[in-house]
Amino acid sequence: MDDAQLLPHTSFNFADSDVTLRSSDNVLFRVHRANLMACSVTFRDMFHVGKETDEAVQLSETSSTLAHLLAMCYPAEDPPVDFSLLASGDILACYEAAVKYQMWVAGLALRSFVEPVVHIDPFRVVRSAHTLSDSVLMQKAVKATLELDILGNTAEYRVKAGITWTSLLEYHFRYKREVTEELLTMQKIVFEARLAGKCYHCARDISLANGAKVEPWQELVTRMIGMRPAAWPRQQLVEYFSICIGAGSVGHSIATHCQHCSRDNALKSGSLRVYVDTWISLKSRAETFAPTCVFNV
């Protein structure tokens, strides 16, 4: 489409313009080289080596994104853009463009608005971070995706994640596998601790396998293993272990029936310490556990 047939942006249509930018949706921005060069290393280099021409400079950004960026090049023309009111996708589009054109002041200002988006729209942030090769932002966003059920809305998440989607699926699978293995290890530790229980009456071992009911701890582990968000359930585990430590019991359901002498209330008092020490150890383990798998695109 010929430039003469295109409409200019109402806020950026200066009569003394010496350069015209054309957005991906065919809107013209008649602006000044001096303003662009003062705010962007990329435009400064472009105009230093390029020849003056009446042709519009074609850019890949939409008119909305360019308008927000150019507003930062003309701080005296209009009130500043309140980026906190923009949708997450618009914030990220502006941030990507600011970094692309090396508009460092704009990029720094926008980065403070990108951080909250990490927890609002992490899949989209992962894609943006990959585009910008921003490893710090990438790791923050990838970690935030673990709090969501990646299979709960695959159509939407796939579009938002873009090229990173397959890598995210693989990472969630490997992360969940490590979480599951650790939960099963914890379950085994509790089982072994319960085998250390002694009957008050006959002094023989009280075994979990004989007459004990399924306790809340086992139910909790089963539920956590079945949960789809892959994140390590640190807070839930720490809260549970804290309750157990305070109660001095195994989820308020210590098996006290002895399979040897068939008596109830058979748990020897000294054995209780074994359980409490186990909960203290597991609480510390839950607080410090971190899967070792690494996200790679």
Automatic annotation (TrEMBL):
Pfam families, per database record: BTB
Superkingdom to which the source organism belongs: Eukaryota
Domain BTB: 17-47
SUPFAM superfamilies: POZ domain
Gene3D superfamilies: Potassium Channel Kv1.1, Chain A (3.30.710.10)
InterPro entries (alphabetical): BTB/POZ_dom, SKP1/BTB/POZ_sf
Coiled-coil intervals, chain numbering: none
Name this protein carries in UniProt: BTB domain-containing protein
Organism expressing this protein natively: Exidia glandulosa HHB12029
